[in-house]
Amino acid sequence: MPEAIALVNLTKYYGKNRGVENLNFAVEEGEIFGFIGPNGAGKTTTIRTLMGLIRPTAGEARIFGSTIPPGGGPLYHQVGYLPAEVNYYPEMSGQELIDYAAGFYPRVDRRWIRKLVEILQFDPSRRIRTYSTGNRKKLGIIQALLHRPRLVVLDEPTSGLDPLMRQNFFNLLQELNVLGMTIFFSTHVLEEIERICHRVGLIKEGRLIHLSPLEELPGRRMKLITLEVSGGGPPRGLPESWGQPVPVEGRPGRYRLAVQAPPGEIVREMARLDLEYIQISDPSIEELFLAMYDAPEKGEAANVR
I want to staple 129 with a disulfide (CB 3.0 to 4.6 A). Which of 1, 90, 112, 190 is the partner? Predict the structure, then answer.
């Protein structure tokens, strides 16, 4: 399929400080691509380069086959962008900001804007200075989508949104994707990648360390188990493949395991224990990275694809 985004040996340094190094990957048109990594990994540097806000030190970024010119120019009539931090003119109303943003594009459907306002339950009549963080993020989402772009680039788009609004937002993205919109989704929340992405790239310390379909993401099936057994000692008799339980710092008697096993196996093994406490959760991005870096020591593959 045609490429919506292509990065070729993309490198960015700020003086002697690393931004990103030799990034090489492409995002196909019609794809929801998840771009994940710890804070400071280089996600925002990559996105700012894509949006023409900064120039690469070496290599290039392309959108729809075109090398990005300084400032982007008319190419960005086809692109929507939501930065991680949204800052607007505080004395404008939400509606005035929407009208101002709409003026940058040749054609905008006002009925579509009203639908976005309704979906996001946003009040555009108020001054921006009165908006909460969540409402400013809603305004940023509307600005990014109001011209129905072919490609939308979202940097930490759900920060500040409540759980119900996150669900509305994800439903909206999936509907737009079915209609052909390409979505580049940067986050540090693994659950969000699980919900909507087709493919995922992992970046750490400015380098791409993994690229694959979502179902091939290393550690995707990992569960974190925090437990306490009667008597307060370490749990006994668990499968050797689960590794050794690790004491939880500051919580005497509690232990943690990172387990890759079918849910049925986990439930059966837990049922055998005399439990005082148990919590089973998904790993954070940081924990997922630690699992990936541990893989070579365990004789497992950890290749960038």
Answer: 90
Tokens 């990172």 found at: 258
For position 153, which CATH number holds? 3.40.50.300
Question: Is residue 289 a part of any domain in this protein?
Answer: no
Helices assigned H by DSSP within 18-121: 43-50, 94-102, 110-119
Whether residue 249 is found in the same domain as residue 150: no
pLDDT in tens, 114-148: 999 999 999 999 999 999 999 999 999 999 999 99
User: 304 lies in a domain?
Assistant: no
CB 95 within 8 A of CB 123: no
Residue 51 has φ and ψ, to the nearest 5°, of -85, 5
Task: Answer yes or no: do 120 and 253 share one domain.
Answer: no
How many C-alpha atoms does 177 have within 13 Å on its Cβ side? 19
Residue partners of 241: CB distance under 8 A and separation at least 6: 261
Which range marks the domain in which residue 277 is found? 222-282
Residue 302: pLDDT band with limits 50, 70, 90:
very low
pLDDT, tens digit, 9 for 90 and up, residues 139-198:
999 999 999 999 999 999 998 899 999 999 999 999 999 999 999 999 877 778 888 999
* Dist. CA 135–CA 161, nearest whole Å: 8
- In 3D space, the residue among 49, 38, 14, 68 whose CA is nearest the CA of residue 204 turns out to be 38
Whether residues 62 and 192 fall in one domain: yes
Q: Degrees (nearest 5) of the Cα angle 131, 135, 139?
A: 110
pTM of the predicted protein model? 0.81
The residues pairing with 182 across neighbouring beta strands, listed in sequence order, are 151
